[in-house]
Amino acid sequence: MGKTVSKTDIGLKRELNQDYVFTAELPVGKLPNLYLVADGMGGHKAGGYASKYAVETIVEVVNSSKEEDAFTILYQAIVEANYRIRKKASEDESMTGMGTTLVAATVMNDVLRVANVGDSRLYLVNEGIQQITIDHSYVEEMVRMGGLDREQARNHKNKNIITRAIGAQSSVNPDFFEVNLKKGDRIFMCTDGVSNMLTDEEILSILNAEGTEEERIDKIVEEANEHGGRDNMGIILVDPQL
Description:
Blueprint: E1 3-9, E2 19-24, E3 34-41, H1 46-64, H2 70-91, E4 99-100, E5 102-108, E6 111-117, E7 121-125, E8 129-131, H3 138-144, H4 150-154, E9 175-180, E10 186-190, H5 192-195, H6 200-207, H7 213-226, E11 233-239
Antiparallel strand pairs: 1-11, 2-3, 3-4, 3-5, 5-6, 6-9, 7-8, 7-10, 10-11
């Protein structure tokens, strides 16, 4: 399944890294590959616990699922992760209120299938860059209703308010996306520690620069930190090499 590079970075302002990533180029259960990015939120250690626990639960459920449809498998896994995080939070006071974003992706027969909860993102990158996921955030809803333009949204004081997360409520409502991949397409997944620091055009410029995929990811982290590094970063870059 082509080439995959992933990385997390604590950034410059945070004491703990609450972002968590998972990549598998080989099958996980009925899925031929699996890529997960999560950005935890909560008290001192709760956010880091939530992102890791959600990812581990999703991998476990995907592994054991008897379903054939990728979206059904991912939905099952996300619902179970939501249940377990809420259960853990109810049992341990230090975990109260914890939650996590999640972007999950798999490529089957040149078709990309994506599930998303929160404001972590998946982009399709070729000569251009296209955000496939839609942020579940206060400012994104304002943009979609016409109350803000994109530039205002980038620097809005309420940019960190997300409207959906795994663990936030008793039920979870992921969005699903399907994209037919073509030759040269790459998949870029990241938490808001990247997308809040770099514009889509800056991300594209780095990903299309000379060098290896590892060097490009390192450059993304370096540039995000140069722009302030205000948050943790979780990044996955997949080149399916179709």
